[in-house]
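User: Could you go from structure to sequence for me? I need the amino acid at each position, not a summary. Structure tokens:
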């Protein structure tokens, strides 16, 4: 069994410039993937926040019988 590093060894020595290009490409790919993931998570969090706000204001009906509508209470206290 050959040593595994012999199997993946490049055919020529990698220069410093090639290494810097590879590192820059890896960082660029990482930033791209992280940006997409952040956009997806941000959209989900914003949607859940909006859902909670609309339920709090009574625009969206209660879920599973849990009523958090505060508008009725505010109107009753004002009267």
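Assistant: Here is the amino acid at each position, in order:
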């Amino acid at each position: 069994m050959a040593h595994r590093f012999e199997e993946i060894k490049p055919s020529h020595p990698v220069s410093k410039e090639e290494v810097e290009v590879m590192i820059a490409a890896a960082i660029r790919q990482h930033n791209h993937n992280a940006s997409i993931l952040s956009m997806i998570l941000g959209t989900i969090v914003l949607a859940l926040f909006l859902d909670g706000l609309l339920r709090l204001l009574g625009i969206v009906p209660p879920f599973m019988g849990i009523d958090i509508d505060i508008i009725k209470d505010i109107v009753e206290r004002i009267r």
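One structural detail worth keeping in mind: The mean pLDDT is 87.
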